[in-house]
Write a structure and sequence with these properties.
It is built from 19 helices and 15 strands. By secondary structure, it is of the alpha+beta class. Helices cover 44% and strands 15% of the residues. The protein has three domains: 222 residues, L-fuculose-1-phosphate Aldolase (3-Layer(aba) Sandwich), CATH 3.40.225.10; 184 residues, L-fuculose-1-phosphate Aldolase (3-Layer(aba) Sandwich), CATH 3.40.225; 52 residues. The chain has a seven-stranded mixed beta sheet with strand order 3-2-1-4-7-6-5, sandwiched between helices. It has a four-stranded mixed beta sheet with strand order 10-13-12-11, with helices on both faces. The site of zinc ion has 6 residues, from loops. Zinc ion binds next to loops.
Length: 493
Amino acid sequence: MKSLFDPEQAQEFISRHPGVSPDLALRVYTSRLIGRDPSLVLHGGGNTSVKVREKSILGEAQEILYVKGSGIDLAAIEPEGFVGLARESLGRLRTLPALSDEEMDNQLRIHKIRAASPDPSVEVLLHAFLPHRYIDHTHADLILALTNQREWKALLREALGPRVAILPYLTPGLPLAKGVLEEYEADPGIEAAVVAQHGIFTFGDGARTAYERMIDYVGRAEAFLRKKSRRNAPGASPAESAFPGKRISSLARFNQTVRGACAFRSPGGGLRRFYAEVRAAADLARAASSPDAGRLCSSGVLTPDHVIRTKNRWVPCGEIPPDDGELKRAVRDAVEAFTRDYDRYFAGQSGARKAGMEKGDPYPRVFLVAGVGIVTLGFTRREARMAADIVEHTLRVKLLAGEAGEYAPISEDHVFDMEYWPLQRKKLGQPPPSSLQGQVAVITGAGGAIGLGIADRLLAAGAAVAVADIDSASLEKVRAILAGSCFLNPAGF
Ligand code: ZN
């Protein structure tokens, strides 16, 4: 791993944001450096902060904690993506023995300095409790390849050296924040903290120091794993596709069958369908065809933060059968086995907590398909892609971790806590589905004004639309107009 910090670019960020403090502008710069590397953070998974002294409306100096807003992408973050909070007031919460979800939500709201700011990251208390000016946090693949091991403590110590606190998994929120603070107070010289099955935090009094410590420690993990394993570091996506063109039709049959088997009636009565996303790089296809496919599917998420996108387990599928009836039976049986297992998991976990918890849908999000690779599902195309990105990284980390030692799954208790943590579920908050969301429409003879009008309306209603026409020039014109439509690019996709 190499530091991408460039003093000239850093200065440019300060000049570009004359209205905000230079410390916050630098925070934006190094957050973006972290955010642009998917092996460090994926889809809102990491977070960063800076502490700045500012004057209140009454002219009184106070320390403001600027922490990344929940779900905001670090790669494109702007100063407004950071939520300002009164740090001293939040810091006093460390004396509490426990904090309910409702009260934590309340405290975060009342200590914001701007009421209209987004919700802060769920790890905000850790950023508030530690004294360091800059704190960087990632769920780096290479760190998780070491934490998710039977011998995690010894491996981490050997790989990262003495200036890192190494903690067991702790529930995000107050327990995690207090745990890391206690480590800091016991040894104020620590430069970083690694939390098992979660990720790494690095600290520094400058933006560059905290960022370069992140790069340094993830680099140490990489060097250590390279020595232990023959495999290259995860993260790089081999360009070669293992999926020959002639088998595209069988993949289309598979996706269609899976979408049918997982469609369900929502409590409101509407039919909900999923979009499917395929990843067929050679190493993924090999893993899906290997004797280990079942274990890769049952060994769960890398970090509980991912469970809302992928569910904890995946569905292993053999080669796609050539016969439609056989394919339907195989997919139906696999989906039924998954939903039965999900019902067992929910009943057991929710029964041990509080009565009346509302169960999410029990359908799988991830299929490992022999000879293909990964097929993921999401209510929107964006969700399906997010799940696919996460599963690509997860699969490569599991393979690497298996070569460096013995991969250890996360307990279902921790996974359930995150899957049903209200502050985490807020990340899924979306407008109610549009009437045709998840449906696929094919328009023949679409190369004219009527075809364009129909396609435009179907896209607006949330459908995925395929257009066809014997006149390829007219069809291309329609495609180009639709490509500029806002409906094709919701939420940045
Ligand atoms: Zn985290």
